[in-house]
Design a protein that fits this description.
single chain; about 210 residues; alpha+beta; three-stranded antiparallel β-sheet; three-stranded mixed β-sheet; 3 helices; globular
Length: about 210
């Protein structure tokens, strides 16, 4: 049986295997808040658009003062759609500088949208993600910490919300109750999946999850 604990990531550990990251650009999925070590990035790259993140763990690329905790995913405006077929490059900024840049968006009246451009590479910013300081992981019976991914969700006959999780680099899965996830990314993802599967306003740590059970 697995239980959950919170591990401090703080831009220093791989978001998948929790190994300490070595210096230099690290890859992440364009939609992810977490950086990956090279082996883990290779595993997830086949199904995700990847970003080579520069400047993580360093001072902001603009003010050179505050820690860079906001990740941009930048695209060469001349590359067109084909630019998404190759790994993108991203630059990192602090929260305050990001807010200033956000206020200076370019208004594209023709397509009715506001565009954000990276001040370093002048590329179009496709996505902005803020790094998270911690991640909820599961601890197995051998007390080994393993970040997990959600495989499925279910509601039992006694109206308990449960989440099936799979550990990385293995086919091992385990069912845990929703409240064992103690909040965080996995709990939020599980809540959304339960809402989509069972409808309604969604559960609250396993309560009021709906009528349909398994």
């Amino acid at each position: 049986m697995a239980t959950s604990v919170t591990v401090q990531v703080a831009n220093e550990r791989c978001g998948r295997c929790l190994e300490v990251l070595t210096p230099g650009p690290k890859r992440r999925s364009i939609t992810s808040h977490f950086l990956y070590c090279d082996p883990c990035a290779d595993l997830v790259s086949y199904r995700n658009v990847m970003v080579h993140q520069h400047g993580w763990g360093e001072a902001c690329s603009t003010c050179h003062d505050t820690a860079a905790t906001v990740y941009f995913a930048c695209k060469d405006v001349e590359a067109g759609f084909a630019g998404l077929m190759e790994p993108l490059h991203g630059h990192s900024f602090c929260v305050d500088c990001t807010n200033i840049l956000d206020d200076r968006r370019y208004e594209d009246e023709l397509n009715d949208r506001n565009l954000l451009f990276c001040p370093l590479c002048k590329g179009l910013v496709l996505c902005v993600r803020e790094a998270v300081p911690e991640i909820v992981v599961l601890v197995d019976d051998d007390m080994e910490q393993k970040p997990a991914e959600i495989v499925d969700v279910r509601v039992t006959e006694n109206i308990q919300a449960q989440v099936q999780v799979q550990f990385p680099n293995t086919l091992e899965t385990d069912w845990v109750s929703l409240h064992e996830l103690q909040g965080g990314r996995l709990a939020t993802q599980a809540l959304l999946l339960i809402q989509a599967k069972y409808g309604g306003g969604g559960p609250n740590n396993g309560e009021n999850v709906g009528r349909q059970v398994e």
